[in-house]
Amino acid sequence: MSRRIRLFEPFTLRGLTVRNRVWLPAMCQYSVEARDGVVTSWHLAHLTARAIGGFGLLHTEATAVVPVGRISAQDAGIWNDEQAEAWRAVVEAVRAQGAAIGIQLAHAGRKASVRQPWHGSASLTAEEGAWQTVAPSAVAFDSLAQPRALELDEIAQLPAAFAAAAERAVGVGFDLIQIHAAHGYLLHEFLSPLSNHRTDAYGGDLAGRARLLLEVVTAVRARVGDDVPVTVRISATDWAEGGLTVAESIELAKLLKAASVDLIDVSTGGNVLADIPLGPGYQVSAAAAVRTAGLPVSAVGLITRPEQAEQILVDERADVVLVGRAALDDPNWVLHAADALLGGHAAELWPPQLVRGRQR
Ligand SMILES: Cc1cc2nc3c(=O)[nH]c(=O)nc-3n(C[C@H](O)[C@H](O)[C@H](O)COP(=O)(O)O)c2cc1C
Fold first, then answer.
1. In the 8-state DSSP scheme, what is residue 302?
2. Helix (H) or strand (E) run with residue 299 in it
3. Is residue 151 in a domain?
């Protein structure tokens, strides 16, 4: 390559070197129709298509570490070995295309037990198979069902559930573990004063609200060893009075760095209804701010154009960019970005089987 294009430079975290810096963020597919958390041919096809399409690393959808941690009944899980084995085929297919794959480990907390989005995302009814949701405090999200506040002995079991899931994931070949602490799901609910009203060791100041996340990170790291990158997705701001702020998220990132986290995936919002100033790259400034904590970050959110993605890296506002919805639209987004930014030099990035599509 004659021109230095940052998007196509490799990126190394611990023992993992990824072929480029355009990655696929976690995106739920709500497609486990058997409701057993076992991924299907949909997940295999969806992720493999985007590995063929040039993404460097692909995150799985939010994958539940316990059954009540699913958003919808059709979410993927990894709380048992059957689920892990089903992921193995996805991992092998993605890696065969030269991409890396990370699993996003999640617990949906008070936003669990809802319908698939194309059926309205409302809380399930008893007839539809609703389950009791849990949260730091018994405070509902918007019009969703009221959660039950977790008891201390239940909180104590969560780090082990994440660690067991991480161990299963590494056992079937996942390259990276991402812990989901964003978008109003359980770990974010603990972090935010708007959803965490606890007066015990898991509430109060940032150290208290971050305690569970730090325990999860520590348990996961102890189980996966030193070679596997562990990343955390956060919502750097709640975009709401009295909620998490970017300033607090920088302090959180320092705590996560000290706890051996390798990269922060910086999203925003999702814990309360808020007016979010949507626009191109609207979360990049939050990523750049969190990056001042001294660890790599990925930026996400309405990054849709190749030149825009490249400029974020050139300006050192993030180390990696994630392209989500634009990749639902175009699985070959990265290959098309290569054409735009590298011209004729992009040919070597295209799988030979697809080149006739490029030259038509
Ligand atoms: C269909 C869909 C499913 C999503 N599921 C998840 C998820 O499982 N975990 C997560 O952290 N974010 C999830 N997100 C958010 C995306 O990862 C991403 O942060 C968001 O779409 C903004 O990036 P974009 O503008 O490039 O799409 C989802 C988004 C979409 C559109």
1. S
2. strand 297-299
3. yes
Ligand 1 centroid – CA 26 distance (Å): 6
Helix, strand, coil fractions of the chain, as percent rounded to 5: 40, 15, 45
- What pLDDT is recorded for position 359? 74
Atom 18 (ligand 1) nearest CA: 324
- Ligand 1: centre distance to CA 103 (Å): 14
Domain that holds residue 300: 6-357
Other C-beta atoms lying within 10 Å of the C-beta of residue 225: 11
3-class SS of residue 195? coil
- Residue-by-residue DSSP string for 134-184: EESSS---TTSPPPEEPPHHHHTTHHHHHHHHHHHHHHTT-SEEEEEE-TT
Domain membership of residue 85 (yes or no) is: yes
User: Both tokens of residue 345?
Assistant: 């030099």
* Distance between CA atoms of residues 276 and 111, nearest Å: 19
118: domain CATH number? 3.20.20.70
Confidence of residue 1 (pLDDT cuts 50, 70, 90): very low
Predicted pLDDT of residue 100: 99
- The CA 210 to ligand 1 mean position distance, Å, reads 23
**Coil, strand or helix at 201:** coil
Give the chain's domain count: 1
Distance of alpha carbon 72 from the chain centroid: 17
pLDDT above 90 for 2: no
**The two structure tokens encoding residue 198:** 């606890």
Residue to substitute in 27, 267, 282 for testing ligand 1 pocket (most ligand atoms within 8 angstroms of CB): 27
In a domain, 1, yes or no: no
Residues 10-31 pLDDT 10s: 999 999 999 999 999 999 999 9
pLDDT score of 360 more than 80: no
φ/ψ bin of 184: left (φ > 0), alpha (ψ from -120 to 50), beta (otherwise):
left
Confidence of residue 3 (pLDDT cuts 50, 70, 90): low
250 located within any domain: yes
- pLDDT score recorded for residue 73: 98
